[in-house]
Amino acid sequence: MEGTIEDSSEYPAHVAIEEPRDGVSVEFDPRNLFDHLPPPSTSSRVKQIWAVGGGKGGVGKSLIASSLGISLARLNQKVLAIDLDLGGANLHTALGVDLPKQSLSDFLTERTRELEDCISPTGIPNLSLISGAQDAVGVANVGPKEKLKLLQKLRNVDADYVIIDLGAGTSYNTMDFFLYADVGVIALLPEPTSIENAYRFIKAAYYRRLWHSPSLRDVRHLIEMAMDPRNKLGIKSPSDLFREVNQANPGSAMALKREIEKFRPKLVVNQARTQTDVDIGFSVKTVCKKYFGTEMDYVGYLDYDSAVWQAVRRKRPLMLEFPNSRLVSSLDRIVTFMLKRYANQKIP
To answer: Is residue 21 one of the residues assigned to a domain?
Structure first.
């Protein structure tokens, strides 16, 4: 099928995950940040955190994130949308508001100590916004201490749902925010470059999740090797990694299997024009099962619609500017499905 992911061996085995280079001295391994985060509390005000990411820019992450937020707000849920596309923030534009005076920069650079001070109204009932960092040079490479502080605050804001609009790529920061969400959504276009980059995103998140797992500490050196295409053990795929882990520590192999089963990203295909485009979601799901041994949930697709660029040009949210479009109906349907299917899902 044209435009679909074929045999996964076509794609590079190595996923470049960039370490922050800000020179911050920390007392913990920044690659293993989750060891320093408490598990979500049952008393947390926030029901769930949803994150929208993708391996390539321009795949509609901000459109999807803003629309998810508006749809949830219409269901009388109190929603906070956060732009974590550090260095390229534009979620405020997708929501039809001017650039707020305060943004995430104020929190990350400690001009304010409270994340709530960065919250701005959107004019949409039940929906607030924290705009992305705009003015701080180098803030896109937020250090591990700042990242830890932000992650700790996310569960305690005054909202039912937190919607995170992530930046493109596979940096440590992007992966950690994606993995910290209760529901992680990956957006892709039915184009070869977008599909390949979505695959890289999935693979990066997959290995990063394994690295985070406390039950796999004894085999982290093997996980690191799996990220290097020239590793001396010849680990080229997740099945190769499982083989080596099983040989080194059978107990860890069982833990690895459990962690793989917990990794269930969600997929949205954007700008679908044909049935072939729609079917790409099922193809990606099949490859993830075959190659990673993990179940990816294909939660829906969005038709190509010129209403999107018209709404952007008018600086108005799509959901409000074209409320009767098929695209808006599709977005509402995806939210309804996700609420029903993942209502109780928490970061495992």
So the answer is: no
Distant-in-sequence contacts of 41-44, Cβ < 8 A, 24+ apart: 41/155, 44/155, 44/156
* HSE, side-chain direction, 13 A CA sphere, residue 22: 18
Q: Is residue 18 part of a domain?
A: no
Report residue 237's pLDDT band, with 50, 70 and 90 as the boundaries. confident
CA 234 – CA 250 distance, rounded (Å): 19
Q: Are 186 and 168 in contact (CB under 8 A)?
A: no
Rg of the Cα trace of the chain?
20
Beta bridge partners of 301: 269
Half-sphere exposure at residue 78, Cβ-oriented, CA atoms within 13 angstroms: 9
Q: Does residue 29 fall inside a structural domain? A: no
Q: Is the pLDDT of residue 14 over 80?
A: no
Task: Give which of 168, 187, 165, 156 is closest to 37, Cα–Cα.
Answer: 156
